[in-house]
Automatic annotation (TrEMBL):
Name of the protein in its database record: Inosine-5-monophosphate dehydrogenase
Source superkingdom: Bacteria
Keywords tagged on the record: CBS domain
PROSITE patterns, sorted: CBS (PS51371)
Alphabetical list of SMART domains matching this protein: CBS
Domain CBS, first and last residues per copy: 7-64, 73-130
Species of the source: Bradyrhizobium icense
Length: 139
């Protein structure tokens, strides 16, 4: 099975200057846990709901009314390709201990996102079990 057969399509991104309140509202509206961050037509990071809480709200100096995506985003981004075997993407997620990966096409354009939830609906049980164990490990 290929990543494109399991991923969810139509993922949008926001720029690093996007207010964190807007990022949070997008997460709520779309029932998702992360938003890719892009600048100059390149992915530059990711903001997760956990980033907002741990890097933002738990920081005594954080002002949600003024904060931007860049203030809490995890810089750098790891991706997989839509034509990768699903097992390759799962092993990549395991190695990185991440729950989601942006999916790019051969032109390096983001075309979707693959998550543990997507994998749970598509991957064989043994592949899924190994992924969940690795990704859920304390780090």
């Amino acid at each position: 099975m290929k990543v494109k057969d399991a991923m969810h399509k139509g993922v949008d991104w926001v720029n690093p200057d996007t207010p964190i309140t807007e990022v949070a509202m997008l997460m709520r509206e779309h029932d998702i846990g992360c938003i890719p961050i892009g600048e100059d037509d390149h992915l530059v990071g990711m903001v997760t709901d956990r980033d907002i809480v741990c890097k933002g709200l738990a920081n005594g100096k954080f002002d949600p009314a003024r904060a931007q995506a860049r203030d809490v985003m995890t810089e750098g981004i790891h991706c997989c390709r839509e034509d990768d075997d699903l097992a390759k993407a799962v092993h990549h997620m395991e190695a990185l201990q991440v729950r989601r990966l942006p999916v790019i096409n051969k032109n390096k354009r983001m075309v979707g996102m693959i998550s543990l939830g997507d994998i749970s609906r598509s991957a064989p049980n043994d592949l899924l079990a190994g992924c969940v164990k690795s990704v859920a490990a304390h780090h």
